[in-house]
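Sequence in, structure out. Go.
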Amino acid sequence: MSSPSLPLVLITNAVPADVLAPLAGIARVVQGPLGGELMSRAEVLRLAPELAGIVNQTELKVDAELLERAPKLKVVANVAIGVNNLDLPLMQRHGVYATNVPHAFVESTADYTLGALLALVRRIPESEVYVRAGRWRSFQPGVWDGTLLEGKTLGLVGYGAIGQAVARRARGFGLRILFHQRTPLDHPEYRTLDRLLQESDIVSLHLPLNADSDRLITAARLAQMKRGAFFVNASRGRIVDESALVAALQSGQLAGAALDVFENEPAVHTALPTLRNVVLTPHIGGGTHESRYRARLHCVSDVARVLSGQRPLNALNAPVGT
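Output:
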């Protein structure tokens, strides 16, 4: 049993017991509810005065309100690549480390992207519902035909680790790859964003949410895409103007979209579930058993390092006094 004198670490959901091993003898741990639910912000704020560390799924906004209530806090670890929930400069001034897991979800998210793309272009969810409903009576050549990937152009907006992992998989399907990134590159596959949108048969987003990417994909940019192109987003919902995306899908400007993230999730634009040409999933892109385990263990290990007086392996800031 841990000593009540040990620092307190909060994990905002329930995790497997063996993930907690790095904190043995270093900290007491309180976890969120069972069943995949996350601890409410109100409960986090109630516990805040005693917290030395927090491990969360990026749902927790670390802002002035939380930091001012948590004078003992030393580290917040995001079990994710994204960090837009963290006020990094403010955390630095408060002497609180911020960390994330930049690599754990790369391969899983790339797997999801190709899976969602295949489901979309081959109309797999739509036809699966048709069979489950008992409506299939005979072989129907042509009725459920989709789109062949071989020979099409896939434009990747964002070409970090995930974008490159998607490209490796996509080449196996015979797709031609183009990419756009913030820093221009002298490379035959590099395009400006405008040119990438104009040349691609499929556009897939793989970039973080920040001031530059917030609402990057507008109605005007969707209008630049080829009529009948496909669109995939497994990065962050707010990169896309969701109403503009709905309009492009309804008008036929886009043939379809696969979306794992949404502008105001968990809320989804009311029109999206009514459309037959979309694949919708609840932010599962990086979620495999293996990736989730590695990410949680990485975060807990970083918290243990900070509480032991060491620098975390993946520090995003350099807190005052460290």
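Check: Residues 106-280 form a domain with the Rossmann fold fold (CATH 3.40.50.720). The chain has a mean pLDDT of 95.
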